[in-house]
Amino acid sequence: MSTLTEDSSRMQHFPYSLQIPSWFLAANVTTPSTMTYTRVTKTVAPNIYFVPVVMTNKVYTTNVQSRAIAGQVVLAANTSIAQGLGPFTGIAACAHGSTSVQCQATASSNFGLTVGVEYDIQWPQYNKNRQGCNNGNPVHGSEDKCFVQPPCAGDLALMGTGSDPMQEVVQQWGASINGYWGDQSTSQINKYILDQKQLTAVAIGTDITQDLSAGNKQGTSKILDDRVNQDTVNFDVAGLGASSSQKLADYLDSANQNPVHNGRRLMPVPIVYPDVAENISPVVGYGLFLLESNQSAAGGTSTYYKDGQGNDPYCAIYVGPWNMGSTNGGVSSSGGATRVRLVQ
Questions:
Q1: What is this structure's pTM?
Q2: Which phi and psi (to 5°) does residue 103 adopt?
Q3: Torsions phi, psi of 322, nearest 5?
Q4: What letter does residue 134 receive in the DSSP assignment?
């Protein structure tokens, strides 16, 4: 969070302390450690026009101090999100066999995801009969054999661990679901991706199983590229061969460069957990992802998603928790959506 102030003002960034001030109570924050805020104080000396008339020792100016505090506060878990989320999902990397409630508790650790790593927001084509998949019940650590194309790097890196999202995706979703949620018509997909409309409102705990589908990849790919190209920084400064973490760092640093990014490459999506035991796919939080580009300099047009094959996944770089309205992502470790508000 940054704040513009005059030279004589004073800006402080400081963490929550054990003392609970009155303005904090007004911020409606349930977990103090997830709040980040900025306090700005300003001292000015305005002219006094009437008071000196009754003063023995005339004073025509006096110092007046003002203060404002803005905080990034966490929305209540039952807050209904009606627009702004993209029609894709991130998969929480929770311990295999967890319940959805247990998975929600991992919000403070980004659901097992790592900032700056590339994950699936729509999975590659699934085929349970593919050689090595073992008829839809693969050996733990070889779930990638059930996909026609390899999943994204971050999910592949988790394969075989105790928190392997591919296990849930393979066992719960199968061939008809790949992480897309929404209508399959191109006109609706255009509204979802470019106009930030949603098929339906969601909240933490909402089961979106009924809204999940195979999607329309032919129509979706170009619209994703359109969103990327609406960003003033639709390219990766360090080049196409740079690491995902470097691409993310360069994009965020462009807030202080020329051109300045406008945030269109950043897409918030629900983080879900395909719960095999309960046969549901509930929302356990919200994550922000940086859409990929195949351009390394300004002036070009990215065709990253359109150039992919129909069976390929849609990959994007995990930025962190979703802070509504921000073009730089959130700084909280909470998995619930946050927003900046003036609390004093």
A1: 0.81
A2: -65, -40
A3: -85, 120
A4: -
Domain assignment present for residue 136? The answer is yes
Kindly state whether residue 187 falls inside one of the protein's structural domains: yes
pLDDT at 150 over 70: yes
Q: Which amino acid is at 288?
A: L
pLDDT digits (tens, 9 = 90+) for 31-54: 444 456 666 777 777 777 777 767
Strands (E), 53-195: 64-74, 90-91, 118-122, 180-181
Q: Where are the alpha helices (DSSP H) in 76-202?
A: 100-104, 153-158, 165-168, 186-194
Shared domain check, 136 and 258: yes
CB 272 within 8 A of CB 86: no
Quote the CA–CA distance of 273 and 165 in Å, as a whole number.
8
Beta strand 266-272 with 90-91 is parallel
What confidence tens digit (pLDDT) does each residue in 49-90 have?
777 767 777 777 777 777 777 666 677 778 889 999 999 999
Question: How many Cα atoms occupy the beta-carbon half-sphere of 96 within 13 Å?
Answer: 17
Residues 142 and 191 in one domain: yes
Residue 118 in any domain: the answer is: yes
H and E: helices and strands count for the chain:
7, 12
pLDDT tens-digit map of 230-244: 999 999 988 889 999
- The number of folded domains in the chain is 2
Q: Residues 268, 330: contact at Cβ < 8 Å? A: no
